[in-house]
Known about the structure:
Layout: H1 2-13, H2 37-51, H3 62-65, H4 68-82
Amino acid sequence: MMKKTIQHYILGNLLFTEDESALQDGDSFLDSGIIDSTGVLEIILFIEETFGIKVNDDEMIPANLDSVDNLAAFINRKQAIAA
């Protein structure tokens, strides 16, 4: 469910498509040119508002934010810490 929410956001707001085949869960946003630095900020705002987490400056790294898989794992970790 979380991955679908993230995928739909990326597809609709950054790729401007509803074609789910345009984005695989493991695709690197940076390597595939899906996002730039502004896109990273958009994704951060989206996950903070949607999933109720705070992304700290030191967490703004590709390992956390560079794919649907990475985002979902990061959000799960943040929510587990907050719980």
